[in-house]
């Protein structure tokens, strides 16, 4: 059990079937589900509109939901807690890691989902599997401020990493970011909505090369451009 927990805690970045995290309990006051147990939990998908979403975000969300109707696009659900059924790849990979204390397990959150609604990262990602690309609609809340009035560069990096990771994600395979390069071209206004267009550029063995741009809703402003390299974990290898 400890070994599994260890692997799980190291797997916040792990992608399984393009889903982020796992279902959370109906309230945080309830006992957290045991790691990797089959206990029933109530799912709360965070990649759905909530009252903090701006008109722009809701409008774009509706447009992409329409695109999902013919099956060419899919909305990726997203949860606060980590994956309950993790890939065997990274169970093996991080077998020797030291576990986080049991008492802290219920506090573990997916970084980009760790804030109250509207205060941090509000986002939803849509994926087009045939075209190997994703679109992330992102609204950076007031707790993400860096330079006054603008989103912190680290927060932008985090959402870019997430968007690229889900673009590169291979169902059932664990991947990690090996390299992330970002050009910050314009500051992103706090509480505004931006669109992150990502694509898988190349697949070379275990290496997945992806790129993205971060644009304003009207596509007139390019805020950032980035490239990323993700590596599929080798089940035969151990990390430590
Ligand atoms: C459930 C919740 C969901 C949540 C979902 C939400 C999404 C969140 C996404 C967050 C993602 C993260 O932040 S992940 C956290 C940040 N990343 C990390 O901590 C990764 C730390 N790095 C590592 O553990 C390791 O370096 C790995 C796993 C990346 C790679 O190690 P490895 O498996 O041993 O691979 P290795 O043999 O070294 O390299 C394989 C090939 O890749 C090349 N390669 C490796 N690194 C690089 C590099 N930086 N730049 C260029 N090339 C590289 C090698 O030359 C080689 O090429 P060739 O010889 O084959 O040609």
Automatic annotation (TrEMBL):
Record-stated family: Belongs to the THEM4/THEM5 thioesterase family.
Major location category of this protein: membrane
Organism: Rangifer tarandus platyrhynchus (Svalbard reindeer)
InterPro entries, per database record: HotDog_dom_sf, THEM4/THEM5_acyl-CoA_thioest, Thioestr_dom
Keyword Transit peptide in annotation: yes
EC number(s) per entry: 3.1.2.2
Enzyme class: hydrolase
Entry protein name: Acyl-coenzyme A thioesterase THEM4
């Amino acid at each position: 059990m400890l070994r599994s927990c260890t692997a799980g805690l190291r797997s916040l970045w792990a992608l399984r079937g393009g889903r982020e995290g796992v279902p959370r309990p109906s309230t945080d006051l309830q006992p957290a589900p045991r790691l990797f147990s089959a206990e029933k939990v109530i799912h709360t998908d965070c990649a759905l509109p909530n009252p903090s979403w701006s008109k722009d975000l809701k409008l774009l969300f509706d447009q992409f939901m329409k695109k999902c109707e013919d099956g060419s696009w899919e909305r990726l659900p997203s949860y606060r807690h980590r994956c309950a059924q993790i890939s065997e790849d990274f169970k093996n990979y991080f077998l020797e890691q030291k576990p986080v204390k049991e008492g802290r397990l219920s506090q573990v959150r997916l970084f980009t989902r760790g804030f109250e609604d509207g205060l941090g990262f509000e986002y939803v990602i849509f994926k087009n599997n045939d075209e190997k690309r994703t679109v992330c609609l992102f609204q950076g809340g007031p707790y993400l401020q860096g330079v006054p009035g603008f989103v912190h560069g680290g927060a932008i990096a985090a959402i870019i990493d997430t968007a690229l990771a889900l673009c590169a994600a291979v169902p059932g395979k664990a991947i990690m970011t090996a390299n992330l390069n970002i050009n910050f071209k314009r500051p992103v206004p706090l509480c505004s909505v931006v669109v992150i267009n990502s694509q898988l550029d190349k697949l070379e063995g275990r290496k997945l090369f992806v790129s993205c741009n971060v644009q304003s809703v009207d596509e007139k402003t390019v805020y950032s451009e980035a490239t990323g390299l993700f590596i599929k974990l080798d089940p035969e290898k151990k990390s430590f």
